Amino acid sequence: MRDFDKLSDFFSTMIILEPEKIKLKELQLLVKWIAEMGISPRSQARIISGIRSFFNYLILEDIIPDDPTDLLELPRLGRKLPEVLSIEEIDSLKSAIDLSKPEGHRNKAIIETLYSCGLRVSELINLQITNIYFEEGFMRVLGKGNKERLVPVNPQVEKDIKWYIEHSRIHLNIKTRHEDYVFLNRRGAQLTRVMIFTIIRQLAEKIRLNKTISPHTFRHSFATHLVEGGANLRAVQEMLGHESISTTEIYTHLSNDYLREAILSFHPRNN
After folding, report:
1. Separation of alpha carbons 36 and 164, rounded Å
2. Is residue 9 included in any domain, yes or no?
3. 132-133 and 148-152 as β-strands: parallel, antiparallel, unpaired?
4. For residue 85, which of 89, 179, 227, 237 is within the disulfide window of CB 3.0 to 4.6 Å?
5. Is the pLDDT of residue 252 over 70?
6. Which residues, 6+ apart, have CB-to-CB distance to 49 below 8 Å?
């Protein structure tokens, strides 16, 4: 409705109030007007998306014959580099966990799994015991679009998850249909996304971390540390479950030192 209000306000100044009279040329003037208001490109794109939805509705209701927003260009959005934690910061977050509390070892296993396996928060809360194969060193993860992938499990993840399952989780009164989920709350039910965000925020506050972090920050850190360590970008793409390698390529922009080293090491003129 706020997007529609901007559309209405702009065209009321031009005395064009009938939607069928609005053409691409007028909408381009609207986009220019929005940009001159000092709104960020990302917010501009969202406003234009809302306006497109309005005209799509008019098409569906047979109020207008053609959609004037078809050729309307969105502002260019720069890729925002994600926040990344150092190994020392991740270790500090883990060290801040009070292991004397019932949820202590669970939270420790959560942090280690997020970082060492690069899971999305939805993948973490839906992780099931029957999908972890410690002997083979893999876990099966259900990602976006119900796509399955195998993610390597390192010895630290194995140690933390096993300790939690064998010493903490075993004492819970687990609810029906929640028996196979790895991470549970104190009532024996599957954890929520919000709870994972809360755990991480509280740990960040505890160590006075001067960064805005979320569960996804550990995924970014996982990928960045792999790429900086020399991991093949195609392998990182597979482990993250990215549809396109262009999504994974953002991690090559996080470290100028890594790029410089890669060029110096592999370009024939430097050998």
Report:
1. 55
2. yes
3. unpaired
4. 89
5. no
6. 3, 74
DSSP assignment, residue 129? G
Does some domain include residue 81? no
Model pTM greater than 0.85? no
Q: What letter would DSSP give residue 228?
A: H
Contact 102, 187 (CB under 8 A): no
Q: What is the pLDDT of residues 219-247, one digit of tens each?
A: 999 998 998 888 888 888 888 998 887 77
Phi, psi of 129 (to 5 degrees): -60, -40
Whether residue 26 sits in one domain with residue 94: no
Residue 110 has pLDDT above 90, yes or no: yes
CA 237/CA 244 separation, integer angstroms: 8
Confirm whether 175 is a catalytic residue. no
Please indicate whether residue 152 or residue 250 has the higher confidence score (pLDDT).
152
Is residue 242 annotated as a catalytic residue, yes or no? yes
Q: What is the pLDDT of residues 13-38, one digit of tens each?
A: 776 667 778 888 888 888 888 887 77
144 a catalytic residue: yes
User: Is residue 268 domain-resident?
Assistant: no
Told to judge if 219 belongs to the known catalytic residues of this protein, a careful annotator would answer yes
Q: Tell me the CB-side half-sphere exposure of residue 50, using CA atoms within 13 A.
A: 15
Domain that holds residue 39: 2-60
The yes-or-no verdict on residue 254 having pLDDT over 80 is no
DSSP character at residue 164: I
- Cβ atoms 220, 82 nearer than 8 A: yes
120 is catalytic: yes
